[in-house]
Amino acid sequence: MTHVPDLPDRSGAAAGDLYLTVDAVWNGRRFLGETTFRSDGERLHPVTDVPAHARTRHHRIAGTLFPRLTDHHTHLGLTDQHALLSGGITHAIDLGWIPAVAAGWLTDDLTRPAVAIVGSLLTCVGGYPVNAGWGPPGSSTEVGGEREARLAVRANVMLGASRIKVTLNTVAGETVDDRILRGIVSESHAQGVPVTVHVEGAGQTARAVAAGADQLAHTPFTERLDDALIAECVRRGMSWVSTLDIHGWGDPTEHHRIASDNLGRFARAGGTVLYGTDLGNGPLPVGVNARELRGMLDAGVPAEAVLRSIAGGRPTPEGTAPTIGPRVALVPSPPPEDLTDALPDWLADARGLAVARLAASAHDTNPHDTDSHATRSTEDHA
């Protein structure tokens, strides 16, 4: 018997496409109200109406869709990546692992978050985290000079790194000197990738800023930065990854207090804050971490900025919904009216899944009912 493929109608929809209506969707700038999408099995395309012939394939899903929820600081070799997606994180930045292993996470496995990697962490001979215990051999590259450092940058980029990470941790011992640090930044920028720096110890944030680094892997937590240095971070366009909850995991420490003070002043000065947890470092929730979000709010980061720090995305034209996929995050309720009070717990209900699974669950619930609802399907600072 000859197979006859589904034929698209004039709107571009195939005969077998599903239509899904949700309570709300995040468009990168704000929430839009009830929105309908056409699912082609890979992506969700916003539409203004449902063709008459597709009414039996139109389903309502209770909740709010996000094109992405990103954890900007993870160590995926120390956690369950499948559980991370189920817990709402659709995109993850791995900040240090064995490059050949991490490169394997770049494959488009829709049961895991989409991943970006740094490859190995760059440090001096014997420097952090070589002897910290949390990273296996090969997850750090020890460099003894500027040429070795530049070659290490190139090696990571060749294996798929879309950013480079260097550690400046004087609490744990020696670090690369300023000449090598500038060489790492210069080579990374020549390769078209930004530089993330782990700073720990007095004066290390100032060193990272002076060298031209693009991002701090943690909010500085071992010293209170002066306002002038924070202003310089903002002026240079540097972003900070939050990682507050690692300081006590719900029982805030002195490092948490210092980081919170620095983060609040950075945010008030106009700095770019990114949600990140350092997942793999202690008993952190595998998924969206309500404690991290609450810590950012308590530090004085405005609720809208906290939401953008994890939901991000390039804003669509005002009033229009984005095309979403192949992964999506679904919070099974509409957005709360008071984000400052409700955002952490509300967003922690997010579940990540592939668009194909979302569409299939909606279809299987009741394929002939447009009111049907999809069912919800180490202590070192790395």
The total count of helices amounts to 11
Residue fraction in strands:
15-25%
Q: Low-confidence stretches at least 5 residues in length (pLDDT < 50)? A: 1-11, 366-382
Strand-pairing-aware structural class: alpha/beta
Instruction: Report helical residue fraction.
Output: 25-40%
Distance between the termini: 59 Å
Query: Rg to the nearest angstrom?
Result: 22 Å
Number of strands: 17
Overall geometric form? globular
Order of helices and strands: EEEEEEHEHEEEHEHEHEHEHEHHEHEH
How confident overall, as mean pLDDT?
91
Q: Main sheet, how many strands, which sense, barrel? A: 7 strands, mixed
Structural features, described:
The structure is a single chain. This protein has helices at residues 81-86, 99-103, 146-158, 178-190, 204-211, 227-235, 254-268, 290-299, 303-311, 339-347, 355-365; strands at residues 18-26, 31-32, 35-39, 44-47, 58-66, 70-74, 91-94, 114-117, 121-124, 140-143, 164-169, 195-200, 215-216, 239-241, 272-274, 327-331, 351-354. It is of the alpha/beta class and 382 residues long. The strands form four sheets. Strands 1, 2, 3, 4, 5, 16 and 17 form a seven-stranded mixed β-sheet that branches. The protein has a five-stranded parallel β-sheet with strand order 11-12-13-14-15. Strand 3 and strand 4 form a beta hairpin. It is globular.
